[in-house]
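Folded chain entry
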Amino acid sequence: MAPSSSTISNNIVGAPLQLVWFLYDVAAETPTAILFLIFVSLVGLAFGLIYIVLHVVAPKPRLPYPSEKTYITTNPDGTISKPRPLPCWYDRWHAESRLKEGQSSSSSSNAQQSYPTIPAGFPVPDFGTVEPAEVEISVVIPAYNEAGRLIPTLEEMIAYLDENFGRPVTSGTGTNSRPTSKGTGTPKPHRNVFKDASAHKRKNPPTGYEILLINDGSTDATVSIALDFARRHQLHDILRIITLEKNRGKGGGVTHGLRHVRGEYAVFADADGASRFSDLGKLIEGCEDVVDGSNRGVAIGSRAHLVGSEAVVKRSAIRNFLMRSFHFVLMILTPPATSRIRDTQCGFKLFSRAALPHIVPYMHTEGWIFDIEMLMLAESAPATPVLASDGSVIGTSYGIKVAEVPVAWHEVDGSKMNLVKDSVKMAIGLAVLRASWMLGVYRRRLA
């Protein structure tokens, strides 16, 4: 005779209860010391499994292909140049840093010689510096199939950059020729509060600008449209186009571009032009206000002031819900300084040149949440000297300060983000990112 459905139901409910009582009886008869060892072993096993899983699923950026370390631009006669070697501060910095690793035994004595006002035994950082800037501002634009939105963005950028920075014109034929300012407007000096701004103490400080368009494997006419724009506006060797053989994602494109900037400041801006580019001056002033004794500073555009405005209210209810939910997750999973930032995702962020070696070499995330890793790396950056008014070193300060600057912003059609799918991916990616840094899967180490 087959068992009734009620009997089957009772067995299903009763089995877990019997297991619980069995485990309770075993625990009651087991010495406390043994239970503690079992508990510690299970916790250790759980962390070990998580560590192994993170090693498998955590993003690992690929090395650049040789062709990705070249760029094309337009020639004065209107033709397209052959691929030219792309300047790379990162390669030189990386080589010098590896060399210093082999000489770590003498690093403390070197630091003591560099900062004689610090008492013996006080921890003072000794990290390498990046090579001097050649232009005043570098603009990095990640672009994937942006043929329909790129031109208005470039027009706005060129108008502002020409008026406020001027165009670099090499006064000579050598690769190290000094840029001189020449443009449609008179470059306006920016307020400078750097405590030790070596670039501005040089006899010939950097001037002008460059634009690095990172073509992230586009399949449309993005490159040809950009080259035609450069030809019409005579942006020869100013608008440089770097093509990635395989799509890396927005984060991968931005990171690749920042490795090759020549500017005293480096800013990345979205190709859709949603953020008003003329607010760049505000970012520069914000960065200069928070720089430390080593001239490290970051300024990020923020749309937090627009919450409740027409631009945000017009969004769909699901989009606003997902935005608030992601911000809540962000506050839980990120370290203190990053969690207090009200808008981490605005595609308009500026870095002083001295800040780049503490952020760019250690980037792993190449998707939508790369901004958060940048901010976390800034927060966890190694200490730098604190300077007194007379220039002497009186202490150290950990982390790179971030200025959150309100910028004008408007919605632009054509986003490639799938609202629900990418929001879920961002939440999972954020959890993986935070766990990877906490458990040591990611570290500040040179590859």
